[in-house]
Every structure is written in C-alpha cells, then in structure tokens.
Amino acid sequence: MYGRDPWGGPLEINATDSATEEDRSRNLQDLDRAALSRPLDETQQSWLLGPGEQKKKKYVDLGCIIVSRKIFVWTVGTVLFAAFLAGFIALIVNTVPRHHHKHPPPDNYTLALHKALMFFNAQRSGKLPKHNNVSWRGNSGMQDGKSSDTSSAIKDLVGGFYDAGDAIKFNFPASFSITMLSWSVIEYSAKYEAAGELDHVKEIIKWGTDYFLKSFNSTADTITTLAAQVGVGDTSGGSTPNDHYCWTRPEDIDYERPVTECHSCSDLAAEMAAALASASIVFKDNKAYSKKLVHGATTLFKFSRDQRGRYSAGNSEASIFYNSTSYWDEYVWGGAWMYFATGNSSYLKLATAPGLAKHAGAFWGGSDYGVLSWDNKLAGAQVLLSRLRLFLSPGYPYEEILRTFHNQTSIIMCSYLPVFTSFNRTKGGLIQLNHGRPQPLQYVVNAAFLAALYSDYLDAADTPGWYCGPNFFSTDVLRNFAKTQIDYILGKNPRKMSYIVGFGNHYPKHVHHRGASIPKNKVKYNCKGGWKWRDSSKPNPNTIVGAMVAGPDKHDGFRDVRTNYNYTEPTLAGNAGLVAALVALSGDKSTSIDKNTIFSAVPPMFPTPPPPPAPWKP
C-alpha cells in the first residue's frame, strides 16, 4: 500500500504490520501512565481538565497591565487602610481644640523705636503729608526762602525739619541727622522691615534730602552759595521777634524768617554731601532719585574742597548754637561716604590721606577722642573705614591708614568699657562722654550705636572680639555696654524715669517745645502771647511722642521744667542717634548687618587681569 510522501516520493506502508489493535491500546495506556507520573505545568493541566475543573487564576488583568492577584489585594487593602487612617487623623485634628502660639511681644528697643521715629513727624516743616499722624501739627514755614531778595540764588526753602523746641532749621546738625539715619538703614534694613518701620524711616530721610536739594543749585556742577540756616535765634538784640524770643506754634509764625547763606563752608557742605551720598545708597533701587542725590553730593563735596572755611566762623548764629570746631573730620567722613556712593577711588584716597587724618585729630587723643557728635564725626569715620578693611581689605595703598583707623576704633571701644577710666560714669551708670556738661544723652546714644554696630561688624567677620592691651574682650561686652546705656535712657536709672516721651509710665511732661506746649484750640497766640504756656507749670497739652530730652545731670538728677532746655529740650541730632542705637539693639541678634549693600557702587578691589597676548608668529 502506497501513500503520498510529503517530500515528493511514494510512501510505502507495510500492511503486514504484526501489531494488533490490542497491543497498540496497551502501549498507549502505558504512555499515558508514564506522562501522568511526571508533574504537569499549568498549560498542560488546562488541556486535561474541563472548563469547570480549571484552577483559580493567580493573576488579575487590569486592561493595561497584568498583576499578581496577591499583590493587587495587598495594594488595594493598603490604600483603603491609609485613607481610613488619614480620615481618622483629620477628624481628630478638627475636633481637638487648638492652642495658637502667639509671637513673643516686641522687645523694649523695638517699642521705643516706633516712638522715636514719630518725633521726626512732629518736627516736619512745610506742607505736611496726610499720614503725618501728629494731630496737633499743621502746615508751617510755607514762605521760607521766598523773600523779596532777588539777588539770592535760593528761592524756595519750604520743607525740612525744625531743629529742636524752636522753629529754626539748622542745616549742619540736620545733615548729620540724616546721615546717621541713612547709615542705620543701610546696616539694619532687615530689622527696620521686621519692625514695620522701613518705609517710615525712608520717608523721613527723603523729607530731609528733598529739602537739602533746595538749599543749593543741585542741578549745577559748581556752586558758590549754600543755605546754612532758616530763622534767627539770637535774642541779644532786644525784643525783635524771632524764633527764640517768641513762644509761638510754627503754624502761627508771622514774623520774618531770614535765610543765612554761606560761601565758604567746608564743614557744612561736606556734611550735607555725606547726607546725600549715604541716602543715595538707601534709595539705590530708585535709580533716578539716587542718581540725583549722587550728583548733588558731588557738587557739594567739590564746593567744600574749593571754598575752604568753617561755616560758623563769620556767622554769629551758628557760632552760638552749633559752632563747628573744624572741617577736617567732615572731609574724612564725607570722603568715605562719597566713595561708597560712587565707587570713585579718588574719594577713598582723600579719606585715607594721612595728612587729612592728622588734621582731623586722629593721632591727637584728647578728652573728647572717640565721641561722635554733630560737630565731630571722626569716630564715625574711623568705624566706617574699619568696616571697609574688615570686609573688602583693599590693601595697598590704603592698608596702612586703614589699619591705623582699625586700631584706633579698637581703642575707642575700649574707652567705652567700665574697666577703663577714659570717661566717668554717674552712680546710675550713665557714661559721661561730655564730661559732666549739660545735654549728655545725644552723645551717649551715638556711642551706643557705634558699639553695637562694631560688635555686629566683628560677628559678621567671624571675629569673636578684640584686644584692649593684653586683655581680650568678646563682642558681647560691647553689646552689653550699648544695652546698659540705652536701658538707662528707657528707665533703668535712679529716678526710674524714661527720658523718651511717651515710653513707659514715667517720662517728662514739660518738654521744652513750642508746638507741644501750646494747645491747638483755634486761638492764634502772638509772639509774647505764648509766653504764658512757656511759663506754665502744667504739663504740655500735646504729647510729643518719641522725643528724647536733653537728659539728666552728672548726678543723675533731672528737673522736668519747660524753661530749662538743658534738661527738657529734644533735638534732631539726639533722636537720630537714638533711632540708630535702638534699631541696632532691636529684634533677634541672629538678624545681622547687611554686609554688601554699602558696597553696591564699589568696583571689585582686584580687577580681573587682562587675557594673555596672542602667540607670537614669526
């Protein structure tokens, strides 16, 4: 029998196969038993089992992915348990009463800072802003500088600040005040912002700088005239109405207020340049205004160098009230601020000239060495230039004099400490920087600011302290000095009296201040009509919040008497130093100084070297 060979040839089938059907059946059964004796895989089992007998699947088909049934069950269970747990926790959180942790109350320095800044609102002259927040003040001095003298180049001096308890505008101490405020903002803007006062203090600074820009031809590159003062205070001429003879609210002044101009006033011009230069750093984000301030400062500093002389030399008014002893310290101070504002190294060369430092008294010593005031800025300049050495270290050719200033700053800080005898102290602990003379607090607050600031400089430079001879003192010692002095002013003194009006429960009520002592009752008191308020024994009807009075005597004594200005009169310069010291001590010590903003206009100390020359080709 033949069949078809799938490979194309005949296939012969042996029909005479001897195997019977019974043999073949027996052989197949043996094969089945042999197959079943081996374990079958899942697929093989599915062949042998019917549809109803198949094993339960171990996998779950999710459409896009096939996962193990065991993993799937665990995953779903975990998700459901997590959701239940989250809901349970949320239920507990929503039902259990919450205890809100309040922020700690502001420290005394921050509280006093709020009040000290308000004093500048009370001293504003000109058209007041709507948010001035001093209810008993109004527009005043609206005719300042607008005299019939057509020969004067200065036509408008409306604005600025009244100096103290009178209505005179002295530009020399006012400029120093604005410089101090600007310096404090440059160093401690984060603390001002934390206290909610940054916009306020910048507004105060701008009120001052806007007025200074009116006091000379600020659009010119060269000037010959500068306004030094508005108003008159000399009463030696008899009963002529003026700002000291009369006791009148500034809003009710009807007498003439002459303008005093100067043509040779290096000290005033350099100090005003310092004010505009430092303020230009405060307003560096307002490029147009900052540029305007820098230009005005440049013009003023040039004027101070071209026309040498003391502003008070031929001015009886200035020599009586704010006599300047020298202009060399303003050259160092103003030169340093001009350098920081412009980055022009010629100003740094001037500020670090050894001859200039010698004339300024850097090597003299003396009883007033280290005392920063509206008259002598040397101590401030020494600290300011020590900052430059600590953080930028410009090296040659400045290093020698900067190292000298740095060493002198260390000596000044040593002189503030109780273990040294450079300055006496009252029994209550107030340092006598003016050697027992009246009105001590304005000098104390400046020293407290310098001490706290220098302490922060050292901390920022990772320097734990400084040496006084062989003795090492930590930065905490300096900060503690600043705190004890400010604490004295805030009420920790033998009289338990705060010398800042409105701070604490016991403070001066008879402040020597015309506006605060005369009620705002729609009655206009003439020049002599206000004398009854001056001589009244009753407390002032208006509280001049934040005013720091002149202070106690060398025995911790204080007379709260309106007519005694040596005890009860506040000043712009005094409050500017107070604000600076308070912000330096306020808040958390972890909020340090701003190391870099003051150097924003300063170019790199070590310029990038030029690229190497191209390879030589023959």
From TrEMBL:
Top-rank EC class of the record's enzyme: hydrolase
One GO process term, biological-process aspect: cellulose catabolic process
EC number: 3.2.1.4
Gene3D superfamilies linked to this entry: 1.50.10.10
Molecular function in Gene Ontology: cellulase activity
Region (Disordered): 1-24
The family this protein is said to belong to: Belongs to the glycosyl hydrolase 9 (cellulase E) family.
Transmembrane listed as a keyword: yes
SUPFAM superfamilies with a match to the protein in the record: Six-hairpin glycosidases
Protein name, as recorded: Endoglucanase
Segments traversing the membrane: 71-93
InterPro entries xrefs: 6-hairpin_glycosidase_sf (IPR008928), 6hp_glycosidase-like_sf (IPR012341), Glyco_hydro_9 (IPR001701), Glyco_hydro_9_Asp/Glu_AS (IPR033126), Glyco_hydro_9_His_AS (IPR018221)
Domain Glycoside hydrolase family, first and last residues per copy: 109-582
Organism for this UniProt entry: Phaseolus coccineus (Scarlet runner bean)
Pfam families found in the cross-reference section: Glyco_hydro_9
Keyword presence, Hydrolase: yes
Reaction(s) catalysed (UniProt annotation): Endohydrolysis of (1->4)-beta-D-glucosidic linkages in cellulose, lichenin and cereal beta-D-glucans
